[in-house]
Every structure is written in structure tokens, then in C-alpha cells.
Design brief:
The protein is built from three helices and five strands. A three-stranded antiparallel β-sheet has the order 2-3-5.
Length: 135
């Protein structure tokens, strides 16, 4: 008889917890329609401001996985002209070490978090082409 009373009491406690959370607003986002706003310090994919980049290669040297490759040509005025900025997303650690040494703030971590793809070859990106409209 004591076990039956204990079972009923535990059932009432469980229903009480359920009723308490039933009256609260939903915490879960309905994903495709609702998107989470990322915190300010979130580190997503590496992005580039191609017009600001001086092709100094400091970001490529700072990367621990060597996932950045900066290609440039020397112009007539002996200044470097950025031709391509290859980013290997498949080996990136999202550590942000490439952002810190940039003297002109041309490279930054954006807030993209939907980075899954079906083809692994699409993870190697030329950021000059992808981010040419980034300001």
C-alpha cells in the first residue's frame, strides 16, 4: 500500500513539473523560419574585404592549419595587387588567429553558422570572388 502511495506522489510531482513548463513560453526556435542572432564575439567563417587587403600575408602566416593562401601580383608602382585569397574551410579551426595580425582589418570572422555542404570540393573558396561586395 505504501508503494502505491509513493507512486501516486511521484506521478503528481512529475505532472507538476510538466504543468510548470507548459505555461512558460517556448524556448525552441522553429529553425527554418526563425534564426538565432549570433553574439557579437561569435566566430563564423572567415570573410574578407578585398578592397582593403594589401596582400601582406600576415593572416596566412598566423594560421595554425595553413588554411589561407594569399596570391598577389606586383603592379607597376611596385605595390601588391591581390589576385586571389584561397580559404580552405575544411581545415579551419575557427580560432580567429588570422584576424588579429591584419594591419588594415581586411579579414574578419563573420556570423555565418550554416556551413554544411554536400560536396567537399566546395569547401575551398576564393574569398575575393565570394566577398567582393563586403564593405
Amino acid at each position: 500500500m505504501k508503494k502505491i502511495i509513493d507512486y501516486i506522489i511521484s506521478l503528481i510531482k512529475g505532472l507538476g513539473v510538466t504543468a510548470k513548463y507548459l505555461t512558460r513560453p517556448a524556448v525552441t526556435l522553429q529553425y527554418p523560419k526563425q534564426r538565432w542572432t549570433m553574439p557579437e564575439r561569435f566566430r563564423g567563417r572567415v570573410a574578407l574585404r578585398p578592397k582593403k587587403c594589401i596582400a601582406c600575408q600576415m593572416c596566412a602566416r598566423a594560421c595554425p592549419n595553413y588554411c589561407l593562401q594569399v596570391n598577389f601580383n606586383l603592379g607597376e608602382d611596385k605595390k601588391r595587387k591581390l589576385t586571389s585569397f584561397i580559404y580552405h574551410l575544411d581545415s579551419c579551426l575557427f580560432c580567429g588567429l588570422c584576424v588579429e595580425p591584419c594591419p588594415v582589418s581586411a579579414i574578419f570572422m563573420n556570423h555565418e553558422y550554416e556551413l554544411s555542404l554536400y560536396n567537399r570540393d566546395e569547401l575551398i573558396v576564393d574569398l575575393v570572388e565570394v566577398d567582393k561586395y563586403v564593405e
